[in-house]
Amino acid sequence: MIKYLGSKRLLLPRIVEAVSALEPRGPVLDLFSGTARVARALKEAGFAVIANDHNEYAWRLAHGLVVADRERWQDPAAALIAELNDAAAAGSPAGGWFTETYGRSARYFQPVNAARIEAARRHLAALPLDPELASVALSALLTAADRVDSTTGVQMAYLKEWAPRSERDFRLETPDLLPRARGGGAEAWRLDALEAARLFAGDVAYLDPPYNQHSYLGNYHVWETLALGDEPEVFGVACKRVDVRTRRSPFNSRRATHAALGAVLEALDGVAIVLSFNDEGFITREAVEALLARHGEVRVEAIPFRRYVGARIGVHNPRGERVGTVGHLENREFLFTVRPARRRAPQPSASAR
After folding, report:
1. Distance separating alpha carbons of residues 142 and 162, to the nearest angstrom
2. How many CB atoms lie within 10 A of CB 190?
3. Residue 44: which H helix or E strand, with range?
4. Hey, what long-range contacts does 217-222 have (CB within 8 A, 24 or more apart)?
5. Parallel, antiparallel, or unpaired for β 234-235 and 240-241?
């Protein structure tokens, strides 16, 4: 899995335990799936999962690492990954647009690795593949690129000096796919959270919304470009995609986030909910609890949690130069559980309608 701001890797056992305690009678909806860590853990626990996120890279990760079942795709994926590694090694060392943009203009990768990443991505784009297999390969590509990047963990900036991991050779590894869950097959969608909440209102939903002004698209714009396979216009020292300026989420706005969360919860009325949030967010614990209390009995657990890797490294500007010190290295993660007085009957997924 890639390095990710707000990753719930250490909280997975508690999240799965909280979802299990709500005894889902149908698919579990992961409304802000991100790197698909939670959706994958839920599938591994046996639940049918519907993963959703509005970013392309997140949809590809969920499609490739959650929807794709081991029984069908493990062996074809291994053969495809070997082919992509051959293509990466045989590609032009000079590279093209991606190498120039993210290996030279903005130094996210050593140029040799940027060229290999680009060659593998171009080869993948030229193959007539089943969408699930293509997503497995893209998940492997994103993960391999993450292992050789030169950042603090987010792509708002790159380091002034090359990170030691950037010296490694780029190489894809075959993902360890999960077998089909006993609860049924998984789905992945790329929708606005409110649209997904309305469309997939089922029995249990897990929510992990953005909590401050930093958009995930802005933090992981290179992954979005690799997932889309495009060559967008970019801006600034960090060479961000121009649509970072226009593809905004209300959850990244101090003014809008309270209403946005309230609207999503209204759409999920009658659905059991597990929601994670932390004390660095725009909304206080008390405000989140008040919103949730409209929909059922609320329980909350406060969990000490180490801040993301970038915070531990320090504060840097877009050129990767240290410009400040971090105030604290730990926050509290709140895990809210809501049992509604009236449970809505599980609905069929959109693909079955």
Report:
1. 19
2. 18
3. helix 37-44
4. 217/55, 217/241, 217/243, 217/244, 217/247, 218/155, 218/156, 218/244, 219/5, 219/154, 219/155, 219/156, 220/4, 220/55, 220/57, 220/154, 220/155, 221/155, 222/102, 222/108, 222/145, 222/149, 222/155
5. antiparallel
Give me the chain's average pLDDT, please: 91
pLDDT (average), residues 171-182: 98
- The predicted pLDDT at position 351 comes to 53
| pTM for this prediction | 0.90
Determine the topology of domain 9-352 in CATH: Rossmann fold (3.40.50)
What are the structure tokens assigned to 186, written together?
Answer: 């998984």
- The per-residue pLDDT for 318 is 57
Between the CA of residue 321 and those of 103, 214, 303, 309, 316, what are the distances in Å?
18, 19, 32, 16, 5
Q: What is the pLDDT of residues 190-249, one digit of tens each?
A: 999 999 999 986 689 999 998 888 899 999 999 999 999 999 999 999 999 999 999 989
Contact present, 347 and 200 (Cβ < 8 Å): yes
Angle between helices 111-125 and 70-90 (to 10 degrees): 130
| Residue partners of 163: CB distance under 8 A and separation at least 6 | 149, 150, 151
Task: Kindly state the percentage of the chain with pLDDT values over 90.
Answer: 78
State both tokens at 243.
């649509």
Sorted by where each begins, the domain ranges of the chain are: 9-352
Residue 307 corresponds to which tokens in the numbers above?
Answer: 């801040």
Phi first, then psi: give them for residue 55, nearest 5 degrees: -95, 145
Higher-scoring residue by pLDDT: 279, 99: 99
Distance CA 231, CA 247 (A): 17
Rounded distance, CA 261 to CA 38, Å?
20
Q: What are phi and psi of 132, to 5 degrees?
A: -65, -45
Instruction: Please report the sign of the dihedral spanned by the C-alpha atoms of residue 148, residue 151, residue 157, residue 158.
Output: negative
